[in-house]
Amino acid sequence: MLASNLDFYNYELPEALIAQKPVENRDQSRLLVYSRETETIQHKFFSDILSFLQKTDVLVVNNCKVIPARLFANRADTGTEIEILLTKKITPTKWQAMVKPGRSCKIGVKLLIGKITAEIIEIKDNGERIISFNCPENDFQKLLESTGTIPLPPYIKRPHTPSSKEDRERYQTVYAAEGEAVAAPTAGLHFTEQLIDKIKNKGCDFLSVTLNVGPGTFAPVKSSDITKHSMHSEEFVLTYKIANKLNKAKQSGRRIVAVGTTSLRVLESCINEKGTFEPASKATDIFIYPPYKIRSIDALITNFHLPKSTLLMLIAAFVGENKWQKIYSEAIEQKYRFFSYGDAMLLK
């Protein structure tokens, strides 16, 4: 089967292996270690990753912060419940958002969320709405914190209530600092502050980029020919300081280890034809799939991804288009936990 065929990226996953909650301690999730050179697999715990890192390694993480971006409103006139998922900040109180049901959200419709009113002021070509919240910025932030819910992916089942303390803490990396993401860079969820200290004490550098992960990360590929898929776009920042450090690392022959597919997408979007990283603050819609050759990194830390997803296609490009099946079959046989709250892989 050709690697451009969507069915090439399908696999059967028992529902019981879809993690509904995180493990008690972040770094006690399991870690599958795959060597691209020897094509061998080892089974470890995430806390063991220290032994697989070289003292000169440079780890690149996505420090985006997940916001409680899902709100439940009511139409001011009919009382119809409207689900809002904020996707992009335009101003502190004006946001682009996905809404359900869309037929109830025409331009001019007013919404009530607690004591705050909002209005649909524009409909975008992709069906998303521009919503203006009629309140000061501080009140809007309080609204998010008090009534907003963490936008967990649809395969994690939760009641229609405010997010639990566990989800608010654990669907967030310990180093989250910048931006407004509506999905977590899940490979980073396994790191504890203590583990990061140990990695730094070993001699590794720990660098940050920011990519605001959007709902497009869960968007299904609908075309049977994946080359016809329209990739979602996400805003990112790679600073001059970080680009300079990465270029010095590459010149010195140090390994660059991307923590997560979002970090990799930033790095691959910023490396030029000469193999040099260029600073940037823009959007990327890079779509990585075989036979694309990834040039920006030497190793990747990542979770297990959904069948037929663009992230699985990225993994296939990194390990080899006919190698990902071996890794995933082994993980299923060994009963690894899958997806956002699941276990991790180190691909080196």
Q: Any overview of this molecule?
A:
The chain is α/β, with parallel strands linked by helices and 348 residues long. The protein has two domains: 6-66 and 171-347, 3-Layer(aba) Sandwich (QueA-like), CATH 3.40.1780; 70-148, QueA-like (Thrombin, subunit H), CATH 2.40.10. The protein is built from seven helices and 17 strands. The protein has helices at residues 137-147, 165-170, 193-202, 240-251, 261-270, 310-319, 324-333, and strands spanning 30-34, 41-45, 58-62, 64-66, 70-75, 81-91, 94-100, 110-113, 116-123, 129-133, 178-181, 205-211, 234-238, 256-259, 280-284, 299-303, 344-347. Strands 2-1-17-16-14-3-12-13-15 form a nine-stranded mixed sheet. It has a six-stranded antiparallel β-barrel with strand order 5-6-7-10-9-8. The mean pLDDT is 95.
Task: Report a brief summary of the structure.
This protein is an alpha/beta fold and 348 residues long. It contains seven helices and 17 strands. The protein has helices at 137-147, 165-170, 193-202, 240-251, 261-270, 310-319, 324-333, and strands spanning 30-34, 41-45, 58-62, 64-66, 70-75, 81-91, 94-100, 110-113, 116-123, 129-133, 178-181, 205-211, 234-238, 256-259, 280-284, 299-303, 344-347.
